[in-house]
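Minutes, project check-in
Item: structure for the 265-residue chain
Input as provided by the requester:
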Amino acid sequence: MYRFLLSRRWAFITLIALLLIPAMIRLGFWQLHRHEARVARNELIAHSLTSPAVPFDTLSGSPGFVVPTELTWRAVTATGRYDPAHEFVVRGRTEPGGSSIGYFVVTPLELADGRGEVLVNRGWVDSGTDATSYPKVPATPAGEVTVTGRMRADETTASSGIRDRGGLPDRQFKLINGGQQAAASGERVLGGYLELVSTSPQPADGPVLLAEPNHSDIGPHMAYAVQWWLFCGLVPVGLVVMARREARERAAEAGSAAEPELVDA
């Protein structure tokens, strides 16, 4: 009754099914690992944001310092004077909580201990109507200030996915990168930068501060993993259903072919 399972057609169907099962299992584990990575990232961000702020110079003290993953988003403080002469803006950045495209305003802070400058992303400003001119930016506070910010790694094309390019208007860039700014300004710029949270004393005006990163959404990856594993379990069930259906159809066809012969007898 099931001799048709030995046919070339069914051998091909079975082969495809046998290939699909491990592929779906692997895809399920891939989504599971993405879920675990997302949960770990959220826990890291939550821990970094709620930990007491530490001095910036205890984490980064040299140009070219690469901020490790475990220090990303860490709350830090730095004291010094802003260097507005070397301020720049970063093009093509989205308004916090919105969809408008504008600029991030990045100003170096000359540290009070003389170790160098740290880049401070002071926030977002609108691009206005002229994308070739330097935007209207609130002035930096005068005198010595203490800033609190979130520790970030220097941006690169590889890490951000943003294609860097030259030929931009004066003091406009695509990335926040200490090495790039050191080459442009000739100053000693320390590795890593700060995403501004607060300033003391508080200025009267400033760019729109960036919101802290979302660390509550775990994404759909676990649901996708379960779906792949369910699909995997359905493959053999589907094979059985297809085989039984074809067996019934073949039996019905055989019965229909034999019926006239029984009448003639």
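Outcome recorded: The two ends are 25 Å apart (CA to CA).
No further action items on this chain.
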